[in-house]
């Protein structure tokens, strides 16, 4: 009897994929139950009509055949100019490869950094696909816990303690799931570890337009890091183009050349009409990006108002991205138990912190992805539910 490869059958490492509460909520919806979903990072607005119109124009103009595997020159140039303007690091199209979304870029970046069996480091809490992505390139995932007491800012010493023999480190700021933006001090510490231990740094920066406090610093800007950093970007979060599957990797020219060979043998590029629409969207500048980000900025303020004056829930500093990380340990429940009970009692679905590793146990990730009034009402219900549970202790 034939069997799938260990690489494929072992993607989840023998554990859960962390989506149990989400899947149960979706089954309830399928059964006709009204559920308020605060689970996944999907905008409640759709891709802006002018972007879709430009996509249609490009398709009708005939850009529907094979597109250049590295990406069209127009999009690579546009991404390079955007990166150079935001970071000050000289960047050309030869530093850019277009990918079918950020997830594809994460996989390709690790394929470039790691050989089979190499240790690939990542931080806990983590976006749910990270460990499986590392296993998918036959790397050995090694997790480094961050601490709730540090607001989930990674400690350089903790990374260094596991860096001997490692090949890469994956970071994400602004961070999903915590909403934390890594400080300059944090990133300088991470960069020092990468230089000292000769690590590739893979920096997932898909939320770079959603910063509410502090500043987004791309580690590629730090001394000695441009030659060892692969930056992952995407149109999904910044331009509400999640379904268009258009992302990129920015890195050293030689690595990008090798990644183009990988794309030739795997994805074979991104449809040209989607790339044309991405150029159009990026050409709208920060005004459009601010418009896409505005609902999450508003809802963060609403959340801060709802959470003020109560003691059952504490809010991890919500500095960026479209999520809140709520500490519900005062209730005596795990994040998973709280999320299950909330779904049963009030038909509100949130993601347990345990879905993203062990460091955020006793926390919830709440996506700010429904209309303002409904979002505020759901949070008020969540707070009352937490107060009831905490009072029962």
Q: Pairing-aware structural class of the strands and helices?
A: alpha/beta
Q: What is the makeup of the main sheet?
A: 7 strands, mixed
**Second rung of CATH, namely the architecture of the largest domain:** 3-Layer(aba) Sandwich
Strand content of the residues, in percent? 5-15%
Secondary-structure element order, N to C: HHEHHEHEHEHEHEEEHHHEEHEEH
Count of all domains: 2
- Mean pLDDT score: 96
For this structure, what is the CATH class of the largest domain?
Alpha Beta
* Shape, per Cα inertia axes: globular
The CA-CA distance between the termini, in Å, is 54 Å
Write the CATH homologous superfamily of the largest domain: Type I PLP-dependent aspartate aminotransferase-like (Major domain)
The percent range for helix content is: 40-55%
Instruction: Give the uncertain stretches in residue-range form.
Output: none
Q: How are the strands of the largest sheet arranged? A: 2-8-7-6-5-3-4
Protein name: aspartate transaminase
Catalytic activity: L-aspartate + 2-oxoglutarate = oxaloacetate + L-glutamate
EC number: 2.6.1.1
Keywords: Aminotransferase, Pyridoxal phosphate, Transferase
């Amino acid at each position: 009897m034939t069997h799938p490869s260990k690489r494929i059958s072992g993607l989840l490492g023998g554990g859960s994929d962390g989506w149990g509460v989400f899947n149960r909520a979706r089954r309830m919806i399928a059964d006709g139950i009204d559920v308020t979903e605060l689970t996944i990072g999907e905008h409640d607005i759709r891709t802006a009509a002018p972007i879709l119109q430009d996509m249609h124009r490009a398709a009708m103009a005939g850009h529907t055949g094979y597109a250049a595997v590295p990406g069209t020159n127009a999009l690579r140039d546009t991404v390079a100019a955007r990166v150079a303007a935001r970071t000050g690091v000289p960047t050309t199209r030869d530093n850019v490869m277009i990918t079918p979304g950020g997830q594809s870029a994460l996989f390709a970046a690790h394929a470039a950094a790691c050989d089979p069996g190499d240790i690939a480091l990542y931080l806990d809490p983590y976006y749910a696909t990270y460990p499986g992505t590392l296993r998918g390139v036959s790397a050995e995932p090694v997790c480094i816990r961050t601490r709730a007491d540090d607001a989930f800012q990674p400690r350089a010493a903790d990374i260094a303690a596991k860096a001997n023999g490692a090949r890469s480190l994956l970071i994400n700021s602004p961070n999903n799931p915590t909403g934390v933006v890594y400080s300059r001090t944090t990133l300088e510490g991470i960069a020092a570890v990468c230089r000292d231990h000769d690590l590739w740094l893979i920096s997932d920066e898909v939320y770079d337009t959603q910063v509410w406090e502090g500043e987004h610093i791309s580690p590629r800007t730090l001394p000695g890091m441009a030659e060892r950093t692969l930056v992952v970007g995407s149109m999904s979060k910044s331009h509400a183009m999640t379904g268009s599957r258009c992302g990129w990797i920015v890195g050293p020219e030689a690595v990008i050349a090798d990644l183009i060979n990988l794309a030739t043998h795997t994805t074979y590029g991104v449809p040209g009409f989607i790339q044309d629409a991405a150029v159009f969207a990026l050409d709208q500048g920060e005004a459009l990006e601010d418009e896409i980000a505005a609902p999450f900025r508003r809802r963060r303020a609403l959340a801060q108002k709802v959470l003020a004056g109560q003691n059952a829930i504490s809010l991890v500093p919500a500095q960026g991205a479209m999520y809140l990380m709520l500490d519900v340990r005062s209730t005596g429940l795990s994040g998973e138990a709280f999320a299950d009970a909330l779904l049963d009692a009030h038909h509100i679905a949130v993601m347990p912190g345990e879905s993203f590793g062990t460091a955020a146990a006793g926390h919830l990730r709440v996506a700010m992805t429904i209309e303002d009034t409904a979002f505020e009402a759901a949070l008020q219900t969540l707070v009352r539910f937490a107060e009831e549970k905490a009072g029962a202790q």
